[in-house]
Amino acid sequence: MEIRCIIVYQAIDSRRQIKPPKTFCGMKTFKLFIGLAIVLSIAPFALNAQSDPEKRVILTLREQSIIRIAAVAGKGDLSKLKAELNAGLEAGLTVNQIKEVLVHLYAYAGFPRSLRGLQTFMAVLDERKAKGINDIMGAKASPIRSEHSKYERGKAILEKLTGVPEAGPKTGYAAFAPEIEVFLKEHLFADIFERDVLTYAEREWVTVSVLSSIGGVEPMLRSHLNICLNVGIAPDQLQQFTEVIKQAIGRKEARNAKKVVSEVLKNKSKK
Fold it and tell me: The domain containing residue 42 runs over which residues?
């Protein structure tokens, strides 16, 4: 048994070049351990395949930072936000990506929360610069070259997010207050979602995080959790999302978010 343990160790630790052991144990036994070593050596590649944006089931550090920044900024806890902004930069988010998170959330939490978040971020960057830390600015939003109206562009983006084509007469709030429906299409889904500094999935993380932080907006949270699934976010990631919310802003908010997540996943499994 001791000899076999040594062989396994050598096989795993020497993936680049596996040599036959000096200890005699028979060629058949050695081949068995070679097979085991091959299986173990490809395991990391199998795990990496799961990290594909369409398939991964675990939140990355960047995604967790986006969730935490958006949730804490939505709450208006600026002292905690300062720590989360530093952590986000260390996790690999660029300056422009974090700015975009803070800009995006104004559509759900209002200008005051967004502006205070941006002011806090400015202070964080100044402090880091004074310490000799030069953070990566990152890419800016690409120019929009479409000749379609903002309403049509926003409508197309919304249909892509929901996976449901819009047809028929307006109902609900869109019929009651047509102007808000225009604002949603032209501004939220065209002006904001069209900016490619963040992906659709990253924008949805911002959205569901802010909605979880402000509370009392379960219908909107439910809609955006469904969109999360449509843009490639996995059910396991939504489950983990509620744990990040608990760590970031509290048990009550996490409990409410978890309830809606469970409803969404249950309904999804029935289809």
Answer: 2-50
